From TrEMBL:
It holds the Pfam family DUF6545. Residues 276-362, 368-428 form the Amidohydrolase-related domain. NCBIfam families: MAB_1171c_fam. This is Amidohydrolase. Keywords: Hydrolase, Membrane, Metal-binding, Transmembrane, Transmembrane helix, Zinc. Residues 241-265 form the Aminodeoxyfutalosine deaminase/Imidazolonepropionase-like composite domain. Residues 189-237 form the DUF6545 domain. It comes from the Bacteria. Gene3D superfamilies: Metal-dependent hydrolases, Urease, subunit C, domain 1. The keyword Transport does not apply. It comes from Streptomyces olivaceiscleroticus. The chain crosses the membrane at residues 46-64, 84-105, 117-137, 157-177. SUPFAM superfamilies: Composite domain of metallo-dependent hydrolases, Metallo-dependent hydrolases.
Amino acid sequence: MRPGWRDWLAAELEKGPAAHGWVEDQRWTHLVSAEERSRARRRPRWEALPLAAAVLVLTVSTFATPAHVRGRDFATADMTQTPVALFFVAALLYLVYALASALWWTVRYARISLRPLATGLWLTAGALAGMTVANAGRLGLDVMRWHGEQASAWLTYGTQGLLGLVVPVFIVGVTYADVMMRMASARVWLQHRRAYRRLRPLWDILHEAFPQDALSRVPSNGWRDFLSLRGTHYPYYIKDGAVLVRGDRIAAVGPREQIERLAPEGLSVTAVPEGTLLPGLIDSHVHLTLDGGNDPIETARQTGDEALLEGMAERAQQLLYSGVTTVRDLADRNGLAIRLRDAIAKETIRGPRILFSATALTSPGSHLHYAKILDMVTTDAAQTLGITDAGQLAEGQLADLIAVDGDPLSDLGALRDIRIVVAGGKTVRS
């Protein structure tokens, strides 16, 4: 952090919100919906009551059961012994309650869901209904045996048969949506693979015509290529490449020898011979006001604006030094993220470029494959945020760059070893 940032902080706090035009600067609004805190706290306590009652009855009846009749299953248990009957009745009562509750919530979600999730939820709901009925039947059998009555054969075989039918349906229901999505992904993957292989002659001709632009492929396993999406979308990089930066923009990208011919004499050069250069990372969902502690929201509520902005500045600097050059902050307080953004833009303090939503709108009491992952935090993130001048190594892009030891395309852990961070054409870590 540069000297004098605390003075800037004090001056900004004295200006107040009106000095910054925050209303005009708001681009995103972060909407959060959740139950009120008091209701969210009450529900688990109410749910604990039937569970505690069932555990209490099970424990007392276990100790009250004579030793010579313990350890028997449902079919062979001596239900004429009251402690034994109470044990099974209490267990089945709670099981029926739990299954009925699960059925209620499953039906609610199934009504508002789309296929294939809705189909899986309705199958699960049907299975839960069958389990509820079957266990209610078993509860009736227990009561009959407890009173010394002969258990009805049709009720016995009916509950067994119903359970045997609905358990497989339950398994199908909870896995249905995932299986359908994977099948759809497999169809898309197969189409892409066929299209890629049909275009292979074109790739060969282009490589022969422009050998200087040929890219090197990441080493990989043949069987892994055959069975995964990497068999269609190959990650490539330039061996012995270089990037030329002019001001805050990338002027050229290509092989090192080619870039050296374009560079003016005396230009400062930073080399990472065994490393990899990639665009600065973009985190599209951060909360700079939250400290990451056990209860960050409550901590933020109890912290004054001055101390909160100080923590936000420190966290912004940590993000920058870890290779994140652009962030989208979702929900601050009193426009603190906007002040922080302005200070970073004026180079009063160091931090990533900040896109912000300002103050959040929430309900009362509520809470505030390697190559693909790199795409998610660079190119894809830029497209999602509508950023056209960052997220890739290309001419005209902002010179937001990071250099890491090793190759993150084959080992994502290389991102832990940040060697160089360039933000807006200025080296902030080396």
